[in-house]
Amino acid sequence: MKQEQSEIKKEIQQIRAEQTFFREEVIKLKQENENLKKENDQITKDNIRTKKELKDLKNTVDWMEKERKENNIVVSGIQVHTSDPTVLKDTVETTVKKYLNIDVTIKKVSKIGPRTCVAVLASAEDKSEIMKNKFKLKNVGPHAIYINDDLTKKEKEKQKQIREMALKEKREGKMVSDFG
Which residues form a coiled coil (predicted)? Predict the structure, then answer.
């Protein structure tokens, strides 16, 4: 019986030692878990901050692109078989003078398609005069000539959404105004 008691005592001591070991392991795991939570919280905060900075940068880039295109116009429908900037500039200036009866200063013209080019005007006033008088181009020559704002990608996407929404409304029999 004494031997059994001795063995039971040893087993109890061993169980207590194991319990102490496991208690210490649980404490270590809790501490490690707490550290990971803190690290995760910091990463989450950094991620939120980085997303905000990225959004701010995108807004700045959008603003800069819009600013860069502020005095630009897109001219479609002009027959020009060259990409020579001087010829393009002369052609756009001549077209504006001939059909709109406006003298404007064009800094630069770049061809972006077979019958389309982008003109950079010297001032917002020049652009404003052209945009006010562009309606005069409706019945000119064998091909219509169109002048539009040089829109940013974001603005083009927004206009596309508006056109699609207007088309949907028209299909449903609703009245839709065309402001373009």
Answer: 12-67
Give per-residue pLDDT as tens, 8-21. Answer: 888 888 999 899 99
Nearest CA to 76 among 113, 129, 124?
Answer: 113
Mean pLDDT across 109-129: 93
Asked if residue 38 belongs to a domain, the reply is: yes
CB atoms within 10 A of CB 126: 20
Q: Does 42 share its domain with 87?
A: no
- 130 and 77 in a single domain? The answer is yes
SS3 label, residue 79: coil
Nearest to 120 by CA among 98, 28, 42, 112: 112
* 155 beta partners: none
Predicted confidence (pLDDT) at residue 131 exceeds the cutoff of 90: yes
Q: Whole domain around residue 85: which residue ranges?
A: 72-150
Report the CATH number at residue 102. Answer: 3.30.70.1820
Looking at residue 179, its pLDDT comes to 57
- Mean pLDDT over all residues of the chain? 91
Helix count and strand count (H, E) for the chain: 4, 4
